[in-house]
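Question (not urgent): is this output format expected?
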Amino acid sequence: MALLPHIPAHPSDDLLARVLMPLARRTFGQVPDSARVLWHHRRAAVDLFLFELRVARWRSLDPTLKSLAVMASAGQIGCSWCVDFAYYAAHAEGLDTQRISQVPRWRESEAFTELERQVMAYAEAMTATPPTTSDEQVARLSSALGHRAFVELTLMVALENQRSRVNAAMGLTSQGYSDACPVPLAQATGASARA
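Got this back:
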């Protein structure tokens, strides 16, 4: 576990942890490092977990577009833990890992449609500090997706910004979730590595 020395994994020895940690192990194959760190503030960890359960029920945005946006945002921030976990989650959801694996090099890859490219460009523009989204991007995506799905896209990118920034600040790195996927995750090269 690659954590910052001042944020060690919580021992998770209380009753609630003894219930939740095995559940996480069964669900993901291992306990997420983020859960072990967040458990230092049990109330915040539980609230975030419950919020994530609610977010998982949002269904207005196509799951592939959602996954592409989340991974592009995490990659833009540089959170290897989030990219690793998002790829694993896409695989677990049954999405096309041949295509999803190419997100780190989406600018060079021919695997994506024009709409998918627009979604990843929007996710990266929204993730930039300060955001660099344009009225044209918003109008184009809102028209293509519909207002409800566009709002969900925007909220998912904002949520991934929170996740990635917290995990990166805590010193979390890839935990190897993507090793369970049949297609290796591509490495950023060329323009994608510079973006």
